[in-house]
Amino acid sequence: MSRFFSAKFDRLIPYVPGEQPKGKNVFIKLNTNESPFPPSPKAQKYAAEAIEKTMLYSDPECFRLRAALADRYGVDADNVICGNGSDDILNFAFSAFCDEKTPAVFADITYGFYRVFAEYNRVPYRIIPLKDDFTIDPADYFNAEGTVFIANPNAPTGIALPVGEIEEIIKNNPENIVVIDEAYVDFGAVSCVPLTKKYDNLVVTETFSKSRSLAGARLGFAVANKELITDLNTVRNSTNPYNVNSITQAAGIGSLEDREYTDENCRKIMQTRKQTEIELKKLGFVFTDSSANFIFAAHPDHPGGEIYKALREKGVLIRHFDADRIKDYNRITVGSDEQMEKLIQKLRCII
Amino acid sequence: MSRFFSAKFDRLIPYVPGEQPKGKNVFIKLNTNESPFPPSPKAQKYAAEAIEKTMLYSDPECFRLRAALADRYGVDADNVICGNGSDDILNFAFSAFCDEKTPAVFADITYGFYRVFAEYNRVPYRIIPLKDDFTIDPADYFNAEGTVFIANPNAPTGIALPVGEIEEIIKNNPENIVVIDEAYVDFGAVSCVPLTKKYDNLVVTETFSKSRSLAGARLGFAVANKELITDLNTVRNSTNPYNVNSITQAAGIGSLEDREYTDENCRKIMQTRKQTEIELKKLGFVFTDSSANFIFAAHPDHPGGEIYKALREKGVLIRHFDADRIKDYNRITVGSDEQMEKLIQKLRCII
After folding, report:
1. Cα distance between residue A275 and residue A183, in whole Å
2. Same domain for B204 and B271?
3. Which of A257, A281, A298 lies at the terminal end of a domain, its last residue?
4. Structural domain of residue B138, as residue ranges?
5. Model ipTM?
6. Helix axes of A259-282 and A337-350: crossing angle, nearest 10 degrees
7. Are the Cβ atoms of B241 and A34 closer than 8 angstroms?
8. In chain B, which residues have their Cβ closer than 8 Å to the Cβ of A248?
9. Which residue of A221, A223, A340, B257 has the lowest C-beta tally within 10 Å?
10. What does the pLDDT look like over A40-67, one tens digit per residue?
């Protein structure tokens, strides 16, 4: 920190992304929930075609991409905002819908960035513990007196809350915004996007990073009623109106036109998740009921940190979190069948 | 605005980017200072190669890109931060180095986003008028009691401040940060990057949007001493650690390896600027001494808004600003020789 850094950030501790190994990647990388499949051929084609025109600014309104998203999700283009990853839009939501009088409200065990977004935007936040089984009690969020952020499925647990229970939360917060972060929704959970037509206090964020294999291209979006999208655009246009580059806009359109490719990859990943869970069970692991592209697993005889380290030494990266309630667990991305077989082999040596 | 939008943004008026025509582009587009030349062949090649791996996250540290930038500018990689355009980094600087006690200080006529960044980050700002001839008096910025933001060359005037005068401003602000925004520096001005080795209160921001023909790819960077870069990274990693996508990182590296291509394009644009200025003079225009890829021109017999509208009707887009002191002027991007010949033809009909 320099002597010039604003004192308002005295307590700010940035988010720490999962490790990205440098140089030749000799690791089996199961630590950041990336897809084992390349982006769709159409996404690649459109992206490649866009490159030669990058001397021109990207469309700040993401007009064609929003139209394609609107078509895909059965909403109007005015109900959609695009961002440089869904992190971008979540940050906008903390900025637009929280302030000193409107705290952020989220679970103790959830996406770690929520706490950082709250600290960065200098808004108070209220933490609601998950139940002992890591599930959410919807009633805990009724009349939240703040802006609610729920990852569904939750990270790093993978547990999904049924849409009916989320609707109860939305209904019981007529004076509060509810943000549902659906980064992992395509792997077995049900999306709340249709509810955005019914409720004026709901924002649903999604990403192209996971199911659409575009983590490196950085593309996220949110769906909400038009007025909330206007608010988010006010923040966007006051910080970085060109936040989505033109190559990524093209890739996004290509990916949406290739929906069957995405759906097929999601089916494969869910199948691999199931198979991996069977193998992990044989090894004595316990795990949550995941609707995401990762498994949140613990072993009764081995601390989570020990398994993480042992796997790392054997060339497999998974994600370990130090937080007290979950330190026995590791979050393991569901990769290809081949990667998961290697994981199980290594675990057999360790356990 | 929705009923949920935070009252803290009551007065926030977002930045309005230059018009991006939709559909088939029939306009001669001289309104957003884009390059008439495509990105370098190497930038295009590296970008295309990166696409198939975008299922993996981009390197949040931009390790290879920062190394290439450090090599190009004769600094260490620790002196460099990359962003999603230089707007991204300028916003970080307003956040990191301004607060209630540390206002932002900038000119009345300069990049319009500074005022928006200040409003968005809710920091006070002090406006220093340019002299009558639109030049900066360095002494106006001595002991600024705030964080100084100077675009050099300035926008939309194109006028460059000599490095010696900037150094005087830096020297006379030992307790304040000075940010020099060099978006247009490659078209005839001299960069302050070497001064970052000498002064711990200097941040220089640059972009790949103009001279490197990568506006649509969104890539900017800043050079400063290591401590200031750490501060900017704290903000970056608290909002969007993956702010630069992997295709753009690859394009940036390719562009840096193809320096001769960039240099040659800059020479061509400066030559075209000179030729266009000769023609504008013949038509009775007056203009500032531009060191940028645009010309800031007024005509004694025709209001700026009138010329802007007349050109638009004839299919040529230039940029007009409503602010009082500059409403007689228009900012005209220097495009290709062919584009500028057409501009002059149309102006001959109008004048």
Report:
1. 23
2. no
3. A257
4. 41-257
5. 0.97
6. 20
7. no
8. 245, 247
9. B257
10. 999 999 999 999 999 999 999 999 999 9
